[in-house]
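Notebook entry, structure prediction.
Reason for the run: the old model in the group folder had no record of what sequence produced it. Starting over properly, with the input documented here first.
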Amino acid sequence: MHFVDPSREVLAETLLAAGPGSPTLCAGWNTEELAAHLYLREHRPAVALGIAVKPLARVSANAIRKLAGKSRTPGAYAALVKSFQAGPPRFSPMQLKSVDRAANLIEYFIHTEDVRRASSRWAPRALNQAYSDALWDELVKRAAILYRGVDLGIILVRPDGPRHVAKRAPVSVAIVGEPGELLMHAHGRTGHALVTYEGQPDAVALLESAEIGL
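New structure, fully documented this time:
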């Protein structure tokens, strides 16, 4: 099943419900900056490159700030979100389902939760099992990169049994949670991820102080 299109819809509706000026878990970004980021990464290749390539980071940041500045009124903000919701341009690589999944399945989940969990009152969503499995599959592919800065072995464990060794080391910590919660942890949203740890207390303390994510 292809979950990116419905995930885009959920993210857009979450942004619209929050409105402009609302907080997110993305440091320094309100909802209009997040919406600008989502739109520009699909419509401006240089901005998309700036997310991953440090020399272009300023180009990306400036473009996001400029578009967000124009999108602070309710009408302009709604128009920006609707433009994102409409999907990538006709000749975008993201029109290919394989590219779309690789680029956006996790992106849309994480950013939906960035908006939802920035509120003081939130609860985890009940996810479709197939969707949860798809998130797990994508997490497994990139877990080693996301935990590369942790000086520990990392084992990701689902409550229903599957586990994945993300990183090997003499001392390890197991991180236990549903796939969506493990994704939030692996992308640095550690204070908003519903996970538990299994390991030596000093190893757990080291994990809690480590830099995690991209």
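Summary: The chain has two domains: 4-116, 141-209.
The old model has been moved to the deprecated folder.
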